[in-house]
């Protein structure tokens, strides 16, 4: 007997852009990102490029008739909810796409002019042709270089970024997202952050993220505009869609893909992969807790209770870590978790683990244990570096746990397996064990417990 099909209905988005043979940018990046955002991606290819992570070796522009045929094929068959444009290449192609503007809902225009490698992707005479396309756009997403070409303003401050957005809006765009990745702020205090400014008819929104020290930004603009288009296709409002796109890109740049001989590529599917890892991460934490209960690790439970924390592979916040709700505490019959494992259940240990991941993103699991002379002796037998922090936290420390992690990694020769916090004002002495996987965390913890209990 044949099985019955179970079709799934999905929103549809369209990318009108060039092909990147290296897979990091262009329609390849667009379609990966759209799929990761839960949207079915379609395409109209404007050009074929021979490129990789090191640069563009060649470009072949498709005849406008072929581009029109692709647009007609998609628009005549699919209920397209949003469209994004990328590399258009020539004034003729820009004008061709503009002629279709009334059939392109939620149009996101990424005015691609130069590749991340520095190779030019737009003929100079085509720059002025963008004005009419921008006038039809729901959103235009220029970087600093593109903003200078389109408006004559080279943004170096938030006010200038806002001015760029207002000029683009005056051209007819519903809104403009002026990207700050290439903006060099004169204020040194801004050197460590990326600021993106969203200008609409009603509001000016500023989104900030810490700057990531990496050259692996190939495909960043494509990924951002495609993510925004995908969220618009899902009927999200413009501000929500833009902020979701910026958040996705920040994570995609933080965890780039090490491919090719060049700098690499942004991680287009990073959020989808992280979501997929949530349940397995919670399961690993549960398994560690069960091992602790079976073994009875009472001798390691501190006064404040113990918690086991597991981070998803691309976790950036405490709510992206799984932990025991209410912690693990001692009872007359051994240790017991107060409740089950859920995401966002830990504060202190989770913040510590997230801070450690800034130095070693492979560290995904942590547990807090009591500290004493017997524990110190047992830690010496661990296979890995143990770092002790006996300083009082400075008054300026925004987060004690972040300061503790930063101090420990600054003092370590590599990546420590245990950090000893000898305590301070209102701070109980504590040991935090770290590991890349749950099994290793459990093994380290139980090794310390065995040494203590048999001493």
From TrEMBL:
It comes from the Archaea. GO terms for biological process: thiamine biosynthetic process. The keyword Heme does not apply. Residues 20-267 form the Pyridoxamine kinase/Phosphomethylpyrimidine kinase domain. Pfam families: Phos_pyr_kin, ThiN. Keywords: ATP-binding, Kinase, Nucleotide-binding, Transferase. Residues 285-444 form the Thiamine-phosphate synthase ThiN domain. One of its GO terms (molecular function) is phosphomethylpyrimidine kinase activity. GO terms for cellular component: cytosol. The keyword Methyltransferase does not apply. SUPFAM superfamilies: AraD/HMP-PK domain-like (SSF53639), Ribokinase-like (SSF53613). NCBIfam families: HMP-P_kinase. This is Hydroxymethylpyrimidine/phosphomethylpyrimidine kinase. It comes from Halorientalis persicus. The lineage of its organism: Archaea, Methanobacteriati, Methanobacteriota, Stenosarchaea group, Halobacteria.
